[in-house]
Amino acid sequence: MKTSVEMWAPATVANLNVGFDSLGCALSAPGERMVLRRIDNRGEVRIADVHGAELDLHPERNVASIAAKSLLNALGNPCGLELELFKTILPGSGIGSSAASAAAAAAGVNAILEAGLRPDELIPFALDGESFASGARHADNVAPALMGGMVVCPPEGAPISIPAPSGWHMVVLHPQVTIRTADSRAVLPSDVKLTAASKQAAWFAAFVAACYERDDAAAALALEDLLVGPHRGALIPHFMETRELAFRHGARAGGISGSGPSTFWVALSKDSANEIAGSLKDLMVDKGLDHSIHLSAVSARGAYEI
Ligand code: HSE
């Protein structure tokens, strides 16, 4: 019987320009750790500590404990659990901080109880936690955080893994300002024009087709954001300069990661990604903005036991 497990869960980029609330991918970096330990009190889930971020430790107000409790309960509460979180994905960064916690918690309960659920079967439990943080029940961060790779989340039915562009070198820039997801959603229109919706659907379809054809360049070219980015760009500090610089240094695509403030930029070589990262760093230094930059790829792995 396992008495403790240590989990890792990846950061994720949601939307990827073409699939608002319905597309996301797991990143190879950053990711974060969580330790889960058995305690005697059946059904109790408590947070022992959170390192690296100021988060509510109350089990009913913490994404990780809500997700863990949901799965523990579904498995019949054979024990209680204590969680210790090592946050390296900063809350409010737009790269799936709460989804990583929810995914690590759900996968951790599955691992410690040796319940044998598949990653996709863990999604509803992780979503119980994630939706507490985001206020909406969409799986575009949680699904790739559990399943790894590139995941399409249709309006109904199970999330679908599609082949991820294996040659993408991604640069993720996190300017350290706080944008609440609710605020980032509040700037979006409730209705869009049919012509724009139709074009956006065509770009999403072209992206999926390029993924299946293993054409990394075509997949990047399809990432046109017609519906969301134009409304959110103004919330991201120096977004247009960032975009202009990234493209000038070789980015083939890019945009806002999830609800921001992070942005992601896609290059097709490591050299190009390094150049983009260097130019964005210079911009942030010039503007006096605290920031972090991650060089990453699409990770095939979702949350796993270390
Ligand atoms: N799809 C979500 C959004 C991601 O863009 O608002 C943030 O949870």
Structural notes for this entry:
It is built from 10 helices and 11 strands. It has 306 residues and is of the alpha+beta class. The strands form 2 sheets. Strands 1, 2, 3, 4, 5, 6 and 11 form a 7-stranded mixed beta sheet that branches. A 4-stranded antiparallel beta sheet has the order 8-9-7-10, covered by helices on one side. β3 (45-51), α1 (63-74) and β4 form a beta-alpha-beta unit. The protein is globular, with a radius of gyration of 19 Å. The chain starts with a strand and ends with a strand. The structure holds L-homoserine. Residues 14-15, 20-21, 134, 138, 140-141, 181, 184-185, 258-259 line the site of L-homoserine.
What's the helix and strand layout?
Layout: E1 4-14, E2 23-39, E3 45-51, H1 63-74, E4 80-86, H2 97-112, H3 123-134, H4 142-147, E5 150-152, E6 160-162, E7 169-175, H5 181-186, H6 194-212, H7 216-221, H8 229-232, H9 239-248, E8 253-256, E9 263-267, H10 270-287, E10 291-296, E11 304-305
Parallel strand pairs: 3-4
Antiparallel strand pairs: 1-2, 1-11, 2-4, 2-5, 5-6, 7-9, 7-10, 8-9
The structure holds L-homoserine.
